[in-house]
User: Fold these one by one.
Assistant:
Number 1:
Amino acid sequence: MLQGLGGLAAAAAGGVGLSRLGLPIGSRAGAQGVRQESQRQWGFVVDLRRCDGCKYCTQACQDTHYLAEDQEWIKVYEVEDENQNKYFIPRLCMQCENPPCVKVCPVEATFKNPDGVVLVDQHRCIGCRMCMAACPYEARYFNFTDSPKPPSPFDNPMPEFPVPQQRGTVGKCVLCVHYTHKGQLPACVEACRMDALYIADLNSDVMTNRSGETYKFSEYLRENDAFRFKEELNTSPRVWYVAGHGQTLGGGRWR
Amino acid sequence: MTIRTLWPLLAVVAVALWLRSDGAAFGDGPAGTVLEPLESSTIGTDRQSTILSVRLLNDQDQPLGGATVTFYMLTTVFGERLMKAGDAFTDATGTASLIYEPTWVGDHTVVVRFPGDAQNASTQTTFQFAASGPVPVHENARFGLEEVRRWLPFAVGAALLAVWTTLGLVIVTTVRGLRAATAALEPQMPLAPVIEPLRPVPFGRTLLALLALLALVALPGAWLLPRQWGGEEVSLSTESGGLTLGGLEPQGGATADAPQKPLAVPLDRSVQTMVFGEGGQLVPGSADLPADVALVNDRVLILDTNKGRILTVTPAGEIVPVLETEAAQEGSLSGATAMAAHEEKVYVANSTSGRVLVVDASGRLEEIIIPLVPKGLNPLTLAGIAVTDRGEIWLSDSGNHRVMLLDRRGELRSVIGEGIPSAGEQGFNAPAGLAIDRLGNLLVVDRLNGLVKQYSPLGVFLGALGEGHLALPRSVAVDETGRVYVSDEKSATVAAFGADGTYRGSIGQGTLQAPYGIKVKDGLLYVMDRLAGLFAFRLQADESVP
Amino acid sequence: MSAVLSPHVEAGDVREAALRPILRPGSLFWVTVAVLGLIVLAGMVAYLHQLRFGLAVTGLNQRVSWGFYISNMVFFIGISYGGAMTSAILRLTNAPWRAPLSRMAETMAVVALMVGGLFPIIDLGRPDRMYNLLLHGQVGSPVVWDVVAITTYMAAGLLFLYLPLIPDIAVCRDRLGPAAGGLRRALYQLLSVGWQGTSQQRHILERGITVVAIIIIPLAVSVHSVLAWLFGVTSRPGWDSTIFAPYFVLGAMFSGVATVILIVAAFRKAYHLEAYIRQEHFQYLSYILLALTLAYSYFMFSEYLTVGYKMHETDGPLLQLLMTGRLAPFFWLFVVGGLVLPVLLIAFPQTRNIPGITIASLAVLLGMWLKRFLIVVPGLAEPLMPSELTIYWPSRVEVAITLAAAAAIPLMMMLFFRVFPILSIYEMEEFAEVPAEHASETPDAEAE
């Protein structure tokens, strides 16, 4: 019906716009989750044993994307365990394979690109914030104000590099697809001084961090008992965590 | 010649012989080893695993058994990185094998390392093999209920269509039916009503007048209401308690190390550059997020970034424009964040347009220099500028993590940096401000690495300072005695370092909000705070530093 | 109840009473319109302020991203159910005492739906992109279901208001038309579509009204179910409940009946309709209200029992927050004031009179507004990640717009009744034992 027409129009516009910049053209995967073939499937690993809560990752992300203070696309939570020891959990968008946010968007402004990254088209978003209500990880942020970036005639915001952020729309971690498609590391991975953040490609089974520690992804997950948060919600996130402070794995509240 | 005199000679000869031969002959040091790659073969499972084999031999060509070798695969997903594929033990024949499941089709480069031990030196070998596939590909998790979800929209759509059709039919048939029934009666109806008509009180005009009056009064209020009327402040995170920012404060106890005397005394010369009027808007003459300051002759110049202007401060403390440019022009200053003075001219680096503009002392745009540099992965983002004695221009390109030296024509003379975010002596992560000290050495703010690095005029690395004391440094300035000042946006202060690179303390704590560009001249430190304005500090002489 | 009209009242008096707002609006009319109009305009100014500066002017933040606007949306759309309840259901069950109430109920339904349906738009961060809903609407999204359901229900509601209005417009055309201004006369002429009161026309009309009355009930159920699923499809504590759709529908009927009682009481007083809307009407409505209060309490109890018995790590803290924590005063205020008090007032015959019933309805209305707030905001404020509870306070903008919405409903109804009759003459004459005044002087095909 209308969806078909709209989808065609969107695909045409998206294809034209993105092909000009040589970025991987994404036609909308849509809520029905039709997966396009792509060479890479991005994932992420956080080693909780190493994170010391410095929040350099948050700062680097905010700097790279010119974000307002309240937009913490990667956010470091501080948790106390039973012995009053503090440990830290960096949380970024989980890039779920069954994303609740994509399912509820009324205008298909948020979508999963062929690399498996959930993106937001801020030219289409109407700002209803249904996706923010649906996200179980609190990973989406609303632009109450304008981006702090001084406006420039060279601004060209697109879902893969949503800078500057548009007021009245929703933004979230894009797993720095604008970097990873060139083989560069995401801003947070590059900034993590404890080397706790790893970017991974699920297809070639490679994960690496900023100091060059590179592992076979599937083997690393197995050997380190990596887990995903809120597994029971069937969101199938692409971010794995390696526990290190005796926290209960998966399920319920993050403790 | 006696033995006594020959003895040193003999000793020298013995040592020379010893040095020339292999250490192993004397039983000292590890002996040379060799790793021989062997033919790899595939196992015909459904995943086409490959057996990778090497043989470890010592310098006598004897196999070394029981040693651990590590296999690495060269990956190119994130640049060239070695991914550990696994460890294997050498058997009695010195052969170590690893079963590897390739995850991509095509050429694979394998690097095998033997770390070495007391007797055997470490060694490494590289070989290739090709995987023909098929290789496992990541499958997205399935959600389930696909069959239901496929036909559900059609079912709902059909129901909706039915409802709308029914409603449409009802209204159409009812109205038509009523009209038809009347038409059938029409000829039989007497037209004159018998009953006295009732008089409705007209109200339309009064209502419109009332609404217009109220609207006229009330609606302009929407434009007069200040921003603060809606909400007291922009609600950022309202989460309370429990969250601390660890590790970003300068370590080492700055307060304990601070000298008794303050480093700098703020002068009563601060100028408010961003002036807000009623309603939270900038007044017409105000600057808009000015980023840098420059000292030319006796004038203090301010770079008004968002409005694309250069302003000067009069002796009376007023801000007066010296040069105004339009955005989106070739000679635009809009978006420029760095400025440096040299021989009565000011050089402005415009990060958005990627140009260097040369402005003379009277405010005339003299020249536009286009950097003729190789394209990086990102657009040219000029974040810092410094001009050498010979008139050559150092520019920092924060988007491409490099610092470049150009001549007056814009041609590239030399580059420091690797083009990608990196660390170390020749690498930067988003280099920002630049400064040149009295010896001609270049100081570079390595922003995301939290350091200031120093290079000789030829680009030789001299040292780094600020480790652990800089959270988000932006600009650097050096005074005549060699002391270094660095503006830190995160801690909203200017950090001061001695000429030997030791941390001395911070300036402007509590006064500054967003310190950006800084310059030092004649014992005065000027700080361009993007929000709070232009500040001037008189620097105190530091007796403890030679 | 066979005779709607009391024995002392003549048929002609019905028309006079129904047209009283048009003929003798009273001195307070313009004062009330001005006051309500100012409140509505203040709300419009607040919205323009929000359009200018964005949603930063509200009290919303990154965790509580839905606040007053969404709870108002649920609330105001909910109270429009009063029309569906009293008019449609009572019509289908052939309850004659609904006759004097039906016009006001149907009007209130349409007006409240219009106001409630504005709130999702007010809540949008980019209302200038609303057309994307048409161009790129995604069928799987509850927001799209919401838009579709509301527009369909609005169409049905308008039809349901209009069809029984046709004979009344014909009365206006004949009695008021000749002495009225050109616009009013043309309006009556157009909208009455040639009604003459013949039995053939009555038959056609009755058929149409019955069909719409049947359709409007499932449509009304669908609207509030869809609103409930806006919350129910998420995995949040307090929202992730299978009972949400019937819970919301019942809550809507509940608050809708209370609103009908209040509206009827207000207009009855303002236009002196005591002769036609008597204590019995209020009592019957109060019985319905009592039944719905008990039903709503039952749903609520069932919801909280199943959560509270297990106190899962996900849902338990929210329940504690509501019952014993920071929000406990508001929760128990709702329970006592919005549920217990009305039951007591209605159960006892001493208080089951017009003032008592009106107070009970007011308590229910305010209580249900509070309950909507307590559903929306704590579900967001309760953290899903390890952090503290997020505080939300509405800003002046949100309060102004809420008050404007509340004022807009009586305002629009007052203006509506300056053009159309406030009582359904058609229905009242249908049930009266007194013969109706002839709409025209044509002898009908059959005798009455």
Note: Chain C touches chain B through 76 residues (CB under 8 Å).
Number 2:
Amino acid sequence: MTLNTLWFMLIALLFIGFFFLEGFDYGVGILLPFIARTDDERRVVINTIGPFWDANEVWFITAGGAMFAAFPNWYATLFSGFYIALFLLLIALIGRGVAFEFRSKVEHVRWRRFWDSVIFVGSLLPPLLWGVALANMMRGVPIDAHMNFVGSFWNLISLYSIAGGVSVALLFTLHGALFISLRTDGVLQRRARSAAMGVGAWATVITFLFVVLSYLETDMFTRHGVDPGAVPILAGLSLFSVQFFIRAKRDGWAFFMTGLTIILSTITVFMDLYPRVMVSSLNPAWSLTIYNAASNPYSLKVMTIIALTVLPLVLLYQGWSYWVFRKRISAEHRLEY
Amino acid sequence: MDNLLLARWQFGVTTVYHFFFVPLTIGLVFLIAIMETLYVTKKNENYKRMAKFWGKLFLINFAVGVVTGILQEFQFGMNWSNYSRFVGDVFGAPLAIESLAAFFLESTFLGVWMFGWDKLPKHVHLASIWLVALGTTLSAFWILTANAFMQHPVGYVIQGGHAEMASFGALIGNEQLWWEFPHVWLGALATGAFFVAGVSAYQLLRKRWLEVFHPSFVISIIVGVVSSILVAIVGHDQAQYLMVSQPMKMAASEALWHTSADPAPWTVIAAIDPAQQRNTFELQIPYALSILAYNQPHGSVPGMLELQQQMQQKYGPGSYIPPVGVTFWSFRVMVAAGVLMILSALYGAWQMVRDKLLQSRRYLRWMLFAMPLPFIANTAGWLMTEMGRQPWVVYGLELTRDGVSPTVPAGEVLLTLISFSVLYGLLAIVDAYLFVRAVRQGPEPDGEDSEVPDLNVAPL
């Protein structure tokens, strides 16, 4: 395996970590106004992700940094090309990030309601944008011979990419609902379960629709044939199984299965891209690949040594932080603000 | 306005804004870690109240620092895609390492610290705030590794029209980095110290929560003395290094158009006429520039016009003179603010030795108004560093105008520039409101969950 392939996989891994972890964060933010009714309930729901969300977001920042280091051309084309989409994402992340911190500092109904709605919008917008971005990355975007994106924001918006956005948003909402059901008890847990039931069906249908559209809109079919291989099939099966586990009140298994769906779907997207990183819709020869977009072998080697040393440590202490806060949260106990 | 100018404004606005919050984060977390260490070793609940109170202010500040930091990292790709392609091979590495080694560390352990007061043994909780402090310091180190490369590129080769990393050791052994990093880090420590000193002084003037704010004030004065003196010493050495590595920046920061006489006088203030490339008025101290530049009362300092000729021979036609006014004045503002900080801290230390720290209301009031000084010094220092490097984005390697994204429409850059600026403004207002509110509310009431309430705490 070349270092280029290894780095493609490492960046895929960072996105998997990001979608898995920040996926339930976004889901919790989206569900906040619907399943938490009193101020205490809202605090409980926010505290389910309170100690984690910031570190979860770092997975995305690290993915961006890793792209910059390992595939500078990928970073440059993607970030300058998806300019307005990224701008909207940043606005959402800025609003959401400060809202978590600011809302608790003033005890006033309107103050808190305002920041709660910022959390809601700031949690809903990113998964929609990520879905749109991933759909476009699979289908291809206008990239010229000099690796520059020559389209506009409206090139990125289509029925296909919107289906992608809605499907990601629903998947994350489902993932978040199941996370809340694992981290709370009593009435919040019941509401989270019923939200998971409602959203789960829609998530399954829209995601299935998105997969069908992918066959029509991208070159998945011509590159891989009708049989997509084990990974996407298992992704689909795990999503179907969620319904069963929710009904059986096996929250842990249901959460595991939505996690599996997210992981396997992300792998599918990256497998579909490989060895390309940005597909040009103008000319296949102008696509960015793990070779023409990459840093030189020395740079990749240095980064490999550092990443393979540091990343296991990160996984270790981040895992430990989840273990520290493993107890369910309820409004009867003292709440941290 | 064209793409380039808008992109530069966006970078400037974001960087300056981001760097209001970052040094406070780095400095404050260090002070909080000291307070919690005192709590754990002395088993005195008041230090816990201190750590919690300053922790609350820290979090209000941290939130804005983090979210603007995301933008800071991504705007290289958004607005400076040609720059990213040209240097990404070298420049991307420290940014990626910053995320991996620093961002994960600080965000994970800050979460543990915030929510872990009742869930963790004291020493584990203490370790987590020290790990946050380590994370912020590592973050500064790696981002400055990237910046040092822009100031003084090393450890690369040019291959196929872009820079490729040739030696990672050279990149982190960059002499520029080893002046810049301690200078910035000590400046951040001073920022934290003056912030704690100012807020404490405000409360001491009102004679409220003396048991929390008196020791806070003492700690901040000690840290303030050490950091503000060291930052000046390192800064002086850094300027001497600049004489060698970026003589044009030094010449511009002295508004020195022509190579100076030997010994060189130092221009305290000047009226600069960049169009005529001369100064219409100068107030000078003889010998001083030679001493500043070489630690000896002789030696001339090269001027901009002579350096311009040398650079044209080396790099081809074009103007290599940075914006002189900004570079000259930002340097002076930074130095003036730094001197005031040293004097303020030293006076406090002297009062402390005489055990009269709380008696001079005038001094307490001054320390309240001295709070902005480090922020002014930080901002001015970065303006000098970054403006003084122009027209280069990477000194001697790539011009700023060649780094901009070629296909992003100017309208979109304008839209994001306006939106982000408005958002920054609103956040600043909310942040200031929350700061003032949290300061007025003061620390949590004593004994809320304490074992031994003790009001008579000797500082340290």
Note: Chain A touches chain B through 67 residues (CB under 8 Å).
Number 3:
Amino acid sequence: MSEPYKPSVESFWGKKGSRSGDSAPSNEKVLRRLFLLLFSRGRSSRGLDLKKLRASKGRRALGLFAAFALFGFPSFIAYGHPVAYLAVMQHAMTFLFIGSYVVTVASATMFNADEADVLLHRPVTSEQLIRAKTTVLAIVSVRSALIMNSIGLVLGFFAPDDHKLFWLVHAFSSAESGIFCAAAVVLAYQVCLRKVGREKLERVMTTFQVLIAVFFTMGAQIFPRLMMRNGGWESALASPWMKLLPPFWFAALDDAVDGSRDPANWGLAVFGIAATVAVSWLAVVRFSKSYDTGMQALSEETKSQVAKPISKSVAVWMKGRAPWKWFLRDSAAAAAFVLVGTYMTRDRDVKLRLYPSLAPSLTLPIVMLFTLSTSSSGPNHPMMGVAFVAISGCFLASTPVQVMMAMRQSPQWQASDVFMLAPTPGPNTVMRGHLVAILTFICLPAFAICLAITPAIAGWKLLPMMIPGAILMPLFAQIGALQKNMLPISVPVDQGASVRAGCLISILMMIGQMVVAALATFAVLYGLFYPFLALEVVGVGIACWMIDAVLRQRVWRTAD
Amino acid sequence: MVSVRELTKRFGEQTAVDGLSFEVPAGQILGFLGPNGAGKTTTLKMLTGMSEPTSGTAVVCGFDIRENPIEVKKRIGFVPDSAAVFESLTGLEYLEMVAGLYGIPEQTAYPRIEQFLSFFDLDMETLRSKMLGAYSKGMRRKVVITAALLHNPQVVFFDEPLEGLDANAAVGFKTLIQSLAREGKAIVYSSHILEVVEKVCDRVIIIDKGRMLVDGPPEGLVAEHGAESLEALFTQLTGGEEMLTRAETFAKTFAP
């Protein structure tokens, strides 16, 4: 050994100066530090050293801060409105965004398969584990809630009348809302664990997470519209039904302390605090035993899978039949098609990443179509309807890229070496199989659902407005394939660099979608819709052909 | 130190471990052998409190694993075959975290970590600055073994501990577990490397399909069954001879 021992910078015995040396911290403290560290660094390090990691951590924290602050921007709608309106808007957005964020991160924090081998044979109880994890989730949730509400805290000063204390009360209620979100998510998982048992756990948890993600996404779309319908926000706030929703409980505290100071709101505010305490108690005390069941289930996952015969993947049946066999003539493409198709339906990790991430883009077009049917501007403003349907169609065009982004990350990323070992000159054939699988299993069914509901909501006349989006889809898929590291299951989970690349692609695609939807709308206005479609087909065809030529030239990069 | 009675584990209709009974006294190294899927890892997971037995009892260091799992866990060390670690911690952070979980104070933990670093010839700079995800397989295994022995356990369970270790480290490790046994620790050693088991272990248990096939000292079992070596005995008992014939037939399919 060349060097003497020095404790690590982020020592588990506490910070420098506060360490006593002759006593050890409690297990729970150690676990809390561990999970906070894992949360901030991600679960896989990809060979980073500490110095690089600190820089990457800083970038990641800044990115998250910017993202949450951005989500807080809709608060400006409430500028100059009374505190009640501002508070409800803020808490509704916090509940929906932070809730969906916690659902996403809670899965990795609560149910990590590797963790069983590291921690389950150590002297820690399931109660200590769940308390430490819930605390970490609550810390993360409260921090995010405060960042998201930072704009709202300032806006409180501009509310009518004198509201000097609003920032303080709202900071407290935002933290309360953050704790409620974290505890509610943990409780929901615990109830699932208790009710379904080990055998069905994996399937039920995945379905549950997907449904929650869809719920939060649809909620974020529908809630502001609900607030503005049928007599505006005043009647929405007065509705007894709305008071059943948690954001109203937290907003009631703001309004009772430094808003209208209506004594009637105190009841709702106290109920909100009581609900937060009750949900937290149920999650970390009452149901903590069920967590043991869940951790053991993960530890025994492979064994129980052996016991249950797995049905043949539908992708295997498809690959030899028309029209798939026309696109999958190359055996490597067919193999990639089967692999991706199987992972989409079978792999827990892929399912948890893929379907919640798709929820926004798959539900947005549907929400937009419904908005069209319920909006007063619908039938009376035909061009508005045309634009709405065109935008809905174009939204769906970006789903292939989103699927690619979600499918490339996996804890089994090292297995993707098999693609390089196969006798293929480059990644093009594998990518082709990947794209066919994405279009077959996700994009075309989603498009078919939208096509089916469009006539019912917007009428048959507007159905052709979905076509520009359909034409755009293969081009976007090809653009996605052009990006680096887009092979399926080939990138470690928590790859930081992908976030930036993903954001850039998403922004560019969003601009492209809006431009095509706008052009399609103008084409209808000037009676040139079908010539526009012809032009779009030719343009997309040429672009796809050019991108395909580039993709064919690609060779495998060497491992170094 | 370890007393197992009719230990059984079922996953649905599949029985992974079927009524295993054995004892491991202090100072003994028990070789726990079996073909893939025989139930070795499941047994070790039950004995370390990671998995709940369907029926039967296991008493480790005087504590029932079902009634007092935490007391058992305080007294055991386990090296799982997966060598799973938290990849985004440095090696040093990982060892400090483990020391913290066993309630080892900083002043006691530091010299102990130093001793292990010295024994395994681990590079301090790498251990302090690199994440575990960047470690070689062997280095990661050394960290996992250190983490299992850091709290000076009375019973140690090893599941394929030599995987990834180079020849020198493997020799050092064999000497280490023999020394640990001499100090009075009970050691359960599960491995597919039968030559090592034959040299290191005082006693061997071979299981297949969750059931115990034989139990005794390696040389005694070899002599009793008229086998040439422990490997030959293992093959004879677990259907490996059939595998030899199959391998020969299969190899012929590669002929041009």
Note: DSSP finds 25 helices and no strands in chain A.
Number 4:
Amino acid sequence: MDTQPAIRLSGLTKKFGTLTAVNDVDLTIQPGEVVALLGPNGAGKSTTIDLLLGLARPTDGAASLFGEDPRRAIVTGRVGAMLQGGALLPTTTVRESVALIHALHTHPLSIDEAMERAGVTDIAKQKVASLSGGQMQRARFAVAVVSNPDLLILDEPTAAMDVSARHSFWESMREFTALGKTVVFATHYLDEADTFADRIVIMDAGRIIADGTPSEVKSVVSGRTLSFTLPSMSSANGPRSGTANVEGLQHLIAVTHVERKGARLSLTTEDSDATLRALLSDYPDAADIEIVSRNMDDAFMALTGSEGTEFEGASK
Amino acid sequence: MNIRYLGLELARQLRNARAIVFVFAVPIVMLLIFGSVYGAQFDKAAHLQWLVVTTIQMGGYGAMMAALSQAFTIVNERSVGWNRQLRITPLSGSGYMVTKVAGALAVGLASIIVVILVSVIFLHAHLSLGGWVLAALGLWIGIIPFGLIAILIGQFAKPSFAQPLFMVTFLGLAILGGLWVPLDILPGWVSNVAQVVPSYWLNKLGQMGAGGPGTVGTPALVLGAWTIVLAALITWRYRRDSARA
């Protein structure tokens, strides 16, 4: 329906004194995409969101929404957002909060429809101050969708939600994206990004360090993880000979990486079958063996370099 | 700017009963005390009955307090992040300001009317209906700068700092403007400073409305200048203020 991208960031940079929070970011998001924005704390996700909504001025570069100035897109009601540190008034009810924002927009959904979509119809008369974390996020979602936006920006929408609240939140979000809307959400939950987004953008230290489909991002870390405990290492020998043993593990066939967490060892391997055979012949006492595919967490850690490893991989 | 949003905002603010009781009670108590003491004496400087002068003083005092107390509402709204939410709506900086000033005017008008009614009904203050209406109108217009000062305090102050900032501003303006004690019993320099303080002209506008001496030229100029400078600061600040609380 649009020829212009929903979001275009070009050379976007934001400096706070000597700190560069967002560093020369280029990003184009087309209408209809569902994009997860991932990154460790302080990666620049929230600042990027503030910049693309025009809430902060870039030090350099520019942001446009649907080919227009962000403010213009906000005024025409094409953008809805749930921001960090943006909350509702404690003394108003959920319905009153939605009604206040509803009154400001030119072509909004009806108040009832916005509440329906966010699943807050049953708590409409409750005061905001009395809501649980999950209810509060849903109420904020109702406020974000009341303008009937084409683009939704969600900064950690499921923070403070329990598992079932997260589940029902993503249910309402699916209904929203089924209408062909664009959604960008920042999250700490990698599984959410994996299951919900068509595209994952990973930021670290103000830059985009990965951008692709969930499977592309995961392919950064190939292979499987083989983990086990080794009674001979933890009990009989001291820590020094334990280190020697770990170095021995690195030379097992197809192993690219070794990690030790307490008594448990994890091998990253390109060929788990071959590694397992070699392991059992060299270390017959290996116990509690598990083999799993590497997941989004591993990809994320590999990309952002925030891994808690003691031993670097042999063939890295 | 739209009327429906304004209506919802005003309804929301008028429900804040605790602040309103405070705003109404203090000037009424002061009026009842001073009014019954000095009663029917005539104030030569203002060419008005003493009771009428005191009524206007207290009406202005209550209205000013009503307008300035908007600062607390705004500080709280900002601290929970409501302003960030508003920034992603079509509401403009000037639209935001108009809504907040309208809120101050609504509560302020209620306070002015209550003070005048108490004075007429219980103390039998004597003035024509037209005189009261114009006095109320003068006070009402005069509180616009205070609504703006409140927004500015609300926009800049952290929650913990709002209370002292409000008290200093409020007491300073009340004393310098001659809303608490007549200026002629204070040192001479106070009267000179008073000429540039909006609360002084708020009181004077009320007196002129009631038929006291003076022309509206000077108060219009002083209050207009305050309004323009404050309004410019507020709209600038609103656009800049996206601080994550």
Note: The two ends of chain B are 26 Å apart (CA to CA).
